[in-house]
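Hey, quick one: can you model this chain's 3D structure?
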Amino acid sequence: MNRIVAIIGRPNVGKSTLFNRMIRKNRVITHVEPGMTRDRVYGACKVDQVCFSLVDTGGIMPSPQSHIEVSIREQVDFALEESGLILYVVDFAGGKMNVLDGGLLKEIRKKGKPIILIINKVDQKADESELAEFHSLGTSNICAVSAVHNRGIENIFEQIKNILADTPEGESVESQEKSLHVAVVGKPNVGKSSFINCLLEEKRLIVDDVPGTTRDAVDVRVMYKGESFTFIDTAGMRKKRKVVKIPESYSVARSLKSIRDARIVIHMIDTSEGLTEQDLKIIDFILREGRALVLVVNKWDTIKDVTQEKFIKYIDQRFRKRRIFDVLFMSVKEGLNVLKVFDYIHEIQTHFERKIATSIVNQVLKKATLSYTPPLVRGKRAKFYYATQINVFPPQFLIFVNDPKNIVPSYRQYLLNYVEERFGYRGVRVDLKYKMRPREDYPKVKRQKRKKGRR
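Sure thing. Here's the predicted structure for all 455 residues.
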């Protein structure tokens, strides 16, 4: 037995709400609309000294019809195979058991793994007589809970602890959090989920031609040359005016949160569509949030008679600003340059983990101001005293001046470009902050008294 606990059940019985409650984070989207969860979503749990991984899954139906339903069932089957313990969730519904629950539970029992029956949505304390119908399912481990109101959750943890106490130690929560987080974002259907599946060399995420297949942000652990990475697959972000359904607005909000939670963001575009206005807005948001960026041009195998140099020139024209991020041409379908993304990640890491000595920062600042003297503002000129690095990620430098108001926007941009070029920053935007030096920092000059007498 291992320390992976899978949450299984029909659609809309409250699996994702229970998952969020148990990991103590609002990670999975919950909504009255069934089928919000599709991919497997993992979370780390710890009760006393027992650590385990919790897996949320999509709702299963006895006879899946559509391609999405079949893919969800495949994800559930994988979770059943890899788990050591199953939380089978049913809906209390006033004490009436759904006719499908017995058949699905019978199917799950064939796996030969311990099962805890979770009777969810018991919002008020129920008598044993009201739970009698659920006892007929023949499961000895039963917990009546209300995930929404946080009732009975401790009973679940207690039963899990008793079952998993003698199993091998699982991965600690701390080691999972130390993994470098990389968010994969972009418009719908650009190949984000296929890219992560290609890294894993398995069908970890559901892929479909229908836009909007991925609805939630899904964390996926990837090991490469002994290093641990957490890639975050996100829902496609369309233009705001095209988002009309509430669930999709939740998905977009999660995608934006994933950008903030990550250190590095891979923004993926479709070669045939090029760099659209929506892509430019997403890139601008990534850089404004201080995240490191790699632009991936996917489906490069589908374009003809266009060189990479020509396409980069087109990107620079569309971006309309000084480009500080690198461009990686990729074909997930053909496996072209997929693993090369780790080279770009390592290069960016060296930039945002670097601490530059204050003496070197001041040398660069002095050269910048000597090369281009600050312009006069209302008859006054900005005077720069010294600078120092105050943060590593994102890189932030504090510059002391006589008056920040004397620095015009064009000169601020000049200093920013100069610092980025001299220190070789790529993929991450440098933040220059200006501060007026306090008066007590100015050197005190004693005035000599003029001698009295004739001149």
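One thing worth noting: The chain has three domains: 4-173, 179-352, 358-441.
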